[in-house]
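Entry 12.
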Amino acid sequence: MALSKKPGRLPGLDPMKRLNGVSVLLAEDNPVNQMVIEHMLAAEGAAVVVAENGRVAVDQIARAGRVRFDIVLMDIQMPEMDGFEAARRIIELAPGLPIVAQTAHALPEELGRCLEVGMVEHLTKPIDHETLVATILRYGAGLAAVHEAD
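Predicted 3D structure (tokens):
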């Protein structure tokens, strides 16, 4: 019998952590940003897989499929494959998997471009901890309802 991580609570998880059981693919090329965001997410109970560029993120989704990740945090400016192209490819591989852009550009045009390729939200760097958690709970496969039921 296979266990699903989605419904209900997982045994051994800290009920005070808002992202318990959430699996995040973090596509980020900057090692400092990787460390900071991964620390924020882990402190809230999330499991994080880091992809150092868009191509690696696409490969992760191609190998793992939609069920491995609840949400993708996508840096926009990365080497090898930028966040826009990576998002397009991930959406083809895993329709419905929410992708949240993260960028230093706070211009409305940047948000529009993110939404045009299919991303659901745009977070401006430096990433605010509370905004990050709220965004993941809002878009991460109905996780807010699961955590409210706890």
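Annotation: The radius of gyration is 15 Å. Helices lie at 31-43, 54-64, 83-93, 108-117, 129-139, 143-149.
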